[in-house]
Amino acid sequence: MTGFYDYREVARSFFIAIVASYPAFDLAGSGACALWLYRASTSGHFLRVNPALQKMLGYELTEELLSRDLPGEIFRHPTEYQRLTELLTRAEEIKDVEMEWNRKDGTRITVRCSGRRVNDDDGASTYFEVFAEDVTEKRVLEKQLRMAQKIEAIGRLSGGIAHDFNNLLGVIIGYSRLLKKSLGSGNALCERRQESVQLP
Hints:
Blueprint: H1 7-20, E1 36-41, E2 46-49, H2 51-56, H3 62-66, H4 70-74, H5 78-90, E3 93-102, E4 108-119, E5 125-134, H6 136-183, H7 188-196
Antiparallel strand pairs: 1-2, 1-5, 3-4, 4-5
Helix pairs in contact: 6-7
């Protein structure tokens, strides 16, 4: 309809324009690109990677990274690679899917991926193009915040329990004083009460 935009189509065009703005994923460039970009076959092998991804994963040579198997060596859990592949197979585009990857040195990182499936002229899947973002530090900070909130909640709970206990203890001491006054200091029951509650 005239005067209205298909925002999904605009977003898709923008996505394609970003990828196209990095010739060959900046393979021969300076590596200044901050985005992690990769193109992978449907069988689980890198076809292209950009320098930012190569650097973050700790590989000096592009050829070495390209030779790595995505489900077996890059993804920490092969099931997560299968899940990503299934999502890309069912939907033309995906957004903000988190999973764990392995760096070359074995360090685990949490990665958030968005990407799209590219089909051939017959509609068959040919490869996937994916943006990846390292959110490891963000998730660590969020975990620390949750832990601090739990500790704070435990502290409030403990303070409330101590307050209630002090109230009960005050009642016990008050009634013990009344009992002492009623029985008299020489009464045997009063002596037993003094053994359990020290009265001033």
